[in-house]
User: Fold AsnC family transcriptional regulator from Mesorhizobium ventifaucium.
Amino acid sequence: MSENVVQRLRDEIENGIISNDFAPGARLDEVQLATRFGVSRTPVREALMQLNAIGLIEIRPRRGAVVIDPGPHRIFEMFEVMAELEGLAGSLAARRFTDADRTTILAAHADCERSSSAGNSDAYYYDNERFHKAIYAASHSGFLAEQCVALHRRLQPYRRLQLRVRNRVATSFAEHGAIVEAILAGDAEQARTLLRQHVSIQGERFSDLVATLASR
Amino acid sequence: MSENVVQRLRDEIENGIISNDFAPGARLDEVQLATRFGVSRTPVREALMQLNAIGLIEIRPRRGAVVIDPGPHRIFEMFEVMAELEGLAGSLAARRFTDADRTTILAAHADCERSSSAGNSDAYYYDNERFHKAIYAASHSGFLAEQCVALHRRLQPYRRLQLRVRNRVATSFAEHGAIVEAILAGDAEQARTLLRQHVSIQGERFSDLVATLASR
DNA sequence: GTCAATGCTCTTGCATACAAGATTTATCGT
DNA sequence: ACGATAAATCTTGTATGCAAGAGCATTGAC
Assistant:
């Protein structure tokens, strides 16, 4: 329970940003956060410095911290990179997966099927996350997995918006099927291509995102 | 000159780590750093929190901060991701480069030629960095460019070791030539493939890296 | 002589205090 | 009445102080 205070604050504030409790552009007042969490300003500042280093907030000298607002264009760029990393994870997974990896992937895929056919988009959201994390793990690249998890986390709110689009859940699940097939067949290039397409938000999916962002 | 103290400390310590002044595994004593830079412990701690968030150091509760030592395997993983990101940057650059981008890339390439044929591997190191940054910029993806620069920076010490290997500078420059050609020809897939190969450290280049690391 | 236990010291973690810049409000002048 | 300037207040940035835990040394026992 010692250093955990800063770590706890970091997670709490980060979650607050991701769950949109702290909206983009919002000011993060140090004393306010300190009293809210029942600590002094020091650990709050240390947590904010970490979020600043990650790129979630911006600290303007003498003017406080604000939640960064990545415009639609930058969000698109982030998905572009995410697609590339997922593609790499998929291709590595196809070459390196073990029996345990196969089991985990198939289990997550089965859960996705359940929540998808039940039409439960919230449940699908979590099962989808497990599915993708199973692929990261199967890539057997710790660094890649970390990068993917971090980016996935940052894109969480927008991913969530996307699933609200009509039929997106069903489409997503269908794509998962092909991805699983490619990976388990050991087809690295096919897995890479499919995952890249699955993750990237080209064409009308980008328009949908912009529209949903604007209406928020 | 206000918040810049923390930022300055962050950069100084980060540079110290990258230039191996603070070797992997070294303890970073707060008071020691504070007196060394003529400040109090508070900004030092805040800088350390940032480096911790980036993943350059590890802060063990009540036991201080140590420089992270990524073993050879993890370094390989980092190069693997770097290769993928550079490949993406190259493919985007091939599709999006402007006249100004072409000029910058060619200028950096010309500088590389100078330092390469002069056999000056230190100079080549810097020109090489400019060359790669020119490609990031030409990708016209701000987020991708940031990610590339950050990873490039973290891999700096190992990249530097690599250039010491016999003929690596000449080989590197030759690869640059083909990359420039592919990008300026607008051949996105070729640019991606060449850059990926250029950056990744497969086969004997990995052995060289491990050997050089061990002898350090 | 060696191992273990206890106490001391040193470092970290958090809080508070103080200083400096930014913002807001109030007052004065036109 | 509106705008500008100055003062007051609020917030951030840095230093210092205090408490608690981890490491180290010394001493005692077997």
In short: The two ends of chain B are 38 Å apart (CA to CA). Chain B has a mean pLDDT of 94.
